Amino acid sequence: MESIEDTHNSQNNLILQTSGIKNSYDSTVPSRLERLLRERELRKSSKSQNANEGIRDGNKDSNVFGNGNELCLSDGDRRAREGELIEGLAVSSLTNGFERQDGRLQRQRLLVVANRLPVSAVRKGEDSWNLEVSVGGLVSALLGVNEFEANWIGWAGVNVTDEIGQRSLTEALAEKRCIPVFLDQELVHQYYNGYCNNILWPLFHYLPLPQEDRLATTRSFQSQFAAYKEANQMFADVVNEHYQECDVVWCHDYHLMFLPKCLKEYNSEMKVGWFLHTPFPSSEIHRTLPSRSELLRAVLAADLVGFHTYDYARHFVSACTRILGLEGTPEGVEDQGQLTRVAAFPIGIDSDRFIRALELPAVKYHIKELQERFAGRKVMLGVDRLDMIKGIPQKILAFEKFLEENPDWRDKVVLLQIAVPTRTDVPEYQKLTCQVHEIVGRINGRFGTLTAVPIHHLVCLLLLNNMNKLLILMDICISWCSLF
């Protein structure tokens, strides 16, 4: 397995590759050796300039990613970058968009575009808002990206229809380097609950599409797909409004598969990357999706397409070759001379956040309290989103089977299952919640005593400090979902 440092380097390299990528084959592209030599000279020039003049920006305001440092590569990043160049994975990140005409290096901005902003907004008055940092795997992963001045564009999670509310929320989010996209309630229902979570999410996890009569399904799919494209266009409008020359636009996840195409229609020179945070299914599964070709071509408009694993990247290339009839290459997908690079970039978390939290007095106190409560018992921990693909019912039933076959362990082991609620307004998820509660209640009634129960099942959002307590306490981790 890759270390946390490796995964953070992978995330940073994804951005760097996007910023330096060419979107077509060019006979003037230098050889690998020439690119390495040019990068070394630029690096020397940058060091000299930093020593004599200093190019650090005076803006020290904090943001959701870090401290807004100047664009610079650490020694580890440079070594990783040079290694990638030697392997021919990318053009030098310092040769396209980083250097101004006067030869000086300019700071490069990163525009992160995701369905949701990294903060949750709660309205307190006509023109006042309360903002809290959201929990989620995407937010946690991007906390480790700090080489860029980053701005986040996304939906604020609330329906704001009045002009005063939109203006005040925009101003409040600007302090967090966030830019809102305002989607109305009906569009969110069709785009997010409909096409994203009812069609794309299940299919990408190898679940069949909803079974309805053919006519109703066609109408439903068509209206939801139209809403999906409309929402993606609204994201593109906001990105284009705030885009500056040499910005890198980093689009995230299955919610925004149409966004690369929309952005390139605005500006063909815009550097666009797209990263998927779910599996990408095999071509046999993907071909069952209505509008599959349209979605694939929209993603291929990006300069760089990233996935968690090599298998997901391979499935994407296979879908493009088998469904669209395009040519797959070792570097990506080629369409009439236009090359979209496809690669795997394992993602990681900021482990230092967890380590620092362990030193807090309140955390230490509660760790001791929990250790005393579960003394003499093995603790099994599961942390999952309450989602159909996470297998929570199957896990709990397997634990019941273990207790049946091993009666000596009934008073010696406890399962702590944390289920983080998600998509609570979707009927299928509501049914799943009821099903899990029924199974837990039956098992606790069967094997529990007056003083102890075998399963502690909590449906709640789990804060970072509480997670650290459980990580220290547990003996076995039987599932883990990155939520921080």
UniProtKB/TrEMBL annotation:
- A single BP term in Gene Ontology: trehalose biosynthetic process
Q: What SUPFAM superfamilies does the record tag this protein with?
A: UDP-Glycosyltransferase/glycogen phosphorylase
| Enzyme nomenclature, EC number | 2.4.1.15
Going by the entry's taxonomy, the superkingdom of the source organism is recorded as Eukaryota
User: What is the residue range of the signal peptide feature?
Assistant: none
Q: Which GO terms describe its molecular function?
A: alpha,alpha-trehalose-phosphate synthase (UDP-forming) activity; trehalose-phosphatase activity
Query: Which InterPro entries is this protein grouped with?
Result: Glyco_trans_20
The answer on whether this UniProt entry bears the keyword Transferase reads yes
Q: Which GO terms describe its cellular component?
A: cytosol
Xref: Pfam families:
Glyco_transf_20
Q: Which UniProt keywords apply?
A: Glycosyltransferase, Transferase
Hey, which family's this protein in?
In the N-terminal section; belongs to the glycosyltransferase 20 family.
The cross-references to PANTHER family, in alphabetical order and at most eight, read: BCDNA.GH08860, TREHALOSE-6-PHOSPHATE SYNTHASE
Instruction: Report what the protein is called.
Output: alpha,alpha-trehalose-phosphate synthase (UDP-forming)
